[in-house]
């Protein structure tokens, strides 16, 4: 039987690696927009309050002298810096201090979701909702975490207990009905959601009504497509379902639906690719690699399969194998091409081959310079890890052409000019940067570097320390390391400190 191909390029969302941490940025886009029980289970509480890792997490503060509010604030600060294990430890402590509060358990659920530990996430949201049954968003978060844990029947049971059928509850119920192949019921529900007016918006929902309507329309069109293909097997519908679940970020449903489709048609290449991508989005790297290898066994010309397998291999610390896959995806014409180039740059950076990484980053920025965020890692590498000012100059020129009045770009110019000894122009660019955004981390570094060059070490040191305090994202790692190196070098041998 001839298999129908599903257009995949516009469907899946690329995972962009962060070179410093080999992590995927997971937010509530992962679980839709995220979690009901009236009785707390002590076993559940003990489970989610237990240490997450065997290695001891170093706490930045001793919480023994902190009250509940202060511990929560500490946890929020750590979470904003993406220090998940440390934040988890803080919120676990807050939950022990005030066991009847819902917020610590909600925060625990959020972090477990970010770490793709959806079983613990659902248990955390369950306790949170038990502590605050008026907060229906916690109920929805629990349902969504169950779906991502692939406990579809448990999620369905929880939905059946909802006393108020808000638009999002109706939507989640329709997604599950579609999964269990209750086609007419699911289709009617999706149509009903698309016809809801803005007055139907429910403040207890997590997801905006317009998003629910847009996603419901996707499923309505899917059923029409399946009806037109009158002789198509059920595996075709399951392939369409898996594709749609993956497209809207319901990865647990996508995985289970893909498995169902493969039971009856094991050689469906597109379904293997969907399965691999959904495993990637739930941080199941080995499972993703296995699924994508099976896809490539069926079709060695699938650029998407090479691309996603490369990502899974890099996460599995098989970086050179990942590079081979990215190179193959590039040769097969994977679109958008810049995304493959970015993955290659990240992979070479992970290997410590910064010059090679910069070559690919420069290609990305030359082809697609629309996002300033794309410049930050290569600029940090060029400014803070190499002595090649030519690359830094090239990147700054590209950035200047596309962002002619930007504080960050002015700061990069300041840093480079300070090192060349052109302090007058450096000061002029720094003043422009300070007017636009004096809190930008690169602006603060530029200020520190200029103070250092003119001999104001106390001011420079204060700025470098501020950089270390405010650095949070993975893109700030090199900036933070650079600031610390400056301080350490001065403390070791003050007279030798130079920007040359």
Can you describe this structure?
The protein is mainly α. The chain is built from 25 helices and no strands.
In short, what is this structure?
This protein is mainly α and 500 residues long.
List the helices and strands and how they pair.
Elements: H1 42-49, H2 68-80, H3 84-97, H4 103-114, H5 118-131, H6 136-148, H7 152-160, H8 167-179, H9 183-194, H10 209-228, H11 234-248, H12 251-264, H13 269-281, H14 285-298, H15 303-315, H16 319-331, H17 337-350, H18 354-367, H19 373-384, H20 389-402, H21 407-420, H22 423-437, H23 441-453, H24 457-470, H25 477-492
Strand tally is: 0
Runs in which pLDDT lies below 50 for 5 or more consecutive residues are 1-44, 50-61
End-to-end Cα distance, whole Å, is 68 Å
H/E element sequence: HHHHHHHHHHHHHHHHHHHHHHHHH
| Average pLDDT metric | 85
What global shape is seen? globular
Biggest sheet character: none
Oligomeric organization of the protein chains:
single chain
Estimated structural class = mainly alpha
Rg calculated over all Cα atoms? 25 Å
Quote the beta fraction. Answer: under 5%
How many H/I helical runs?
A: 25
Question: Percentage of helical residues?
Answer: 55-70%
């Amino acid at each position: 039987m001839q298999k129908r191909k599903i257009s995949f390029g516009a469907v899946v969302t690329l995972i962009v690696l962060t070179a410093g941490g080999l992590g995927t940025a997971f937010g509530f886009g992962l679980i839709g927009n995220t979690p009901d029980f009236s009785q707390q289970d002590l076993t559940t509480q003990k489970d989610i309050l237990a240490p997450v890792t065997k290695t001891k997490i170093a706490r930045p503060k001793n919480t023994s002298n902190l009250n509940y509010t202060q511990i929560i604030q500490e946890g929020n600060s750590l979470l904003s810096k993406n220090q998940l294990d440390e934040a988890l430890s803080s919120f676990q402590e807050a939950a022990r201090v005030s066991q009847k509060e819902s917020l610590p358990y909600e925060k625990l659920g959020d972090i477990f979701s970010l770490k793709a530990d959806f079983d613990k996430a659902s248990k955390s949201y369950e306790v949170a909702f038990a502590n605050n049954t008026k907060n229906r968003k916690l109920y929805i978060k629990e349902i969504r975490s169950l779906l991502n844990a692939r406990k579809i029947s448990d999620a369905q049971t929880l939905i059946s207990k909802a006393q108020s059928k808000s638009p999002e509850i109706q939507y989640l119920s329709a997604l599950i009905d579609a999964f269990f192949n209750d086609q007419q019921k699911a289709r009617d529900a999706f149509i009903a959601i698309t016809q809801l007016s803005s007055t139907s918006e429910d403040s207890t929902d997590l997801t905006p009504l317009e998003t629910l309507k847009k996603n419901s329309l996707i499923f309505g069109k899917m059923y029409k497509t399946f009806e037109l293909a009158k002789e198509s097997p059920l595996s075709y519908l399951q392939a369409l379902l898996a594709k749609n679940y993956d497209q809207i970020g319901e990865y647990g449903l996508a995985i289970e639906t893909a498995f169902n489709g493969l039971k009856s048609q094991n050689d469906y290449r597109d379904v293997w690719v969907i399965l691999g991508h959904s495993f990637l989005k739930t941080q199941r790297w080995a499972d993703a690699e296995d699924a994508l290898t099976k896809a490539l066994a069926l079709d060695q010309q699938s650029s998407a399969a090479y691309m996603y397998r490369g990502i899974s291999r890099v996460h599995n610390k098989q970086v050179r194998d990942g590079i081979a896959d990215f190179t193959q995806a590039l040769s097969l014409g994977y679109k958008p091409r810049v995304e493959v180039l970015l993955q290659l740059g990240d992979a070479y950076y992970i290997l410590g081959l910064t010059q090679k990484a910069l070559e690919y980053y420069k290609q990305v920025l030359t082809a697609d310079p629309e996002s300033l965020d794309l410049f930050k890692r290569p600029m940090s590498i060029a400014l803070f890890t190499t002595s090649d000012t030519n690359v830094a100059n090239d990147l700054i020129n590209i950035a200047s052409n596309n962002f002619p009045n930007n504080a960050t770009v002015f700061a990069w110019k300041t840093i480079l000019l300070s090192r060349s000894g052109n302090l007058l122009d450096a000061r002029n660019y720094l003043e422009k940067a300070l007017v636009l955004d004096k809190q930008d981390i690169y602006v603060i570094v530029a200020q520190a570097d200029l103070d250092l060059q003119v001999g104001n070490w106390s001011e420079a040191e204060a700025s470098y320390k501020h950089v270390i305090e405010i650095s949070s994202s993975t893109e700030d790692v090199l900036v933070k390391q650079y600031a610390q190196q400056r301080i350490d070098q001065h403390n070791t041998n003050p007279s030798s400190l130079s920007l040359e």
